[in-house]
Sequence to fold (192 residues):
Amino acid sequence: MPTAAGEMRDEIRAVLFRESTIMSRLDEMASQISSDYAGKDLTVLAVLNGSLMFGADLLRRLEMPLRLDCLSVSSYHGASTTGVVKFNQLHLPDVHGRHVLILDDILDSGHTLHAIRDKLQNETSPLSIKICVLLRKDVPRQRELEADYVGFDIANEFVVGYGLDYMERFRNLPYIGVVSEEAIVKYAPKFA
Ligand code: 5GP
Ligand code: MG
Fold:
């Protein structure tokens, strides 16, 4: 009988980053971040749900004390961006006077991180804001935004796994891969 992980694997047409590759890269990113923020009071702001695995693994590698807050936003439907960023909570974490490192799974058009950074700057006046993403897509940004820390650069493909979903599936894959065409169609939203 096929396992659940096996069933998911059948729907991935290519593995881009194996678990061990991701872990090695996180070691490097963590040592860079630890040295950049040494002696500073850091607040990590993880953008849910996509950065859950990335955040959990990266934060356990950071050496300094830090505060963790989460932010829930949505801007994506299926495999294409809408450009409209919705904040799913009433209040932003209070990061006034703090060094903030925003963690997200992937930088694509830039809409999401731009909206978050703008809102934080306007509403809570942090001391500094930097951006850390696991993946950065090779596409023209629709918003002016640079990431300060990047795990991997990728081509313009829709990827899943290690926190990233397609229609809320595949987040629990331990690696990052590309969904097959059949699976894209199989799980596509159905409009009446
Ligand atoms: P942006 O606002 O930069 O266009 O998109 C950022 C958000 O869109 C990410 O946080 C992520 O949730 C979603 N996203 C963008 N590209 C991909 C992708 O290739 N795969 C998945 N699963 N989500 C993506
Ligand atoms: Mg996201």
Q: What stands out?
A: The first strand starts at residue 12 and ends at 17. Residues 96 and 124 are 5 Å apart (CA to CA).
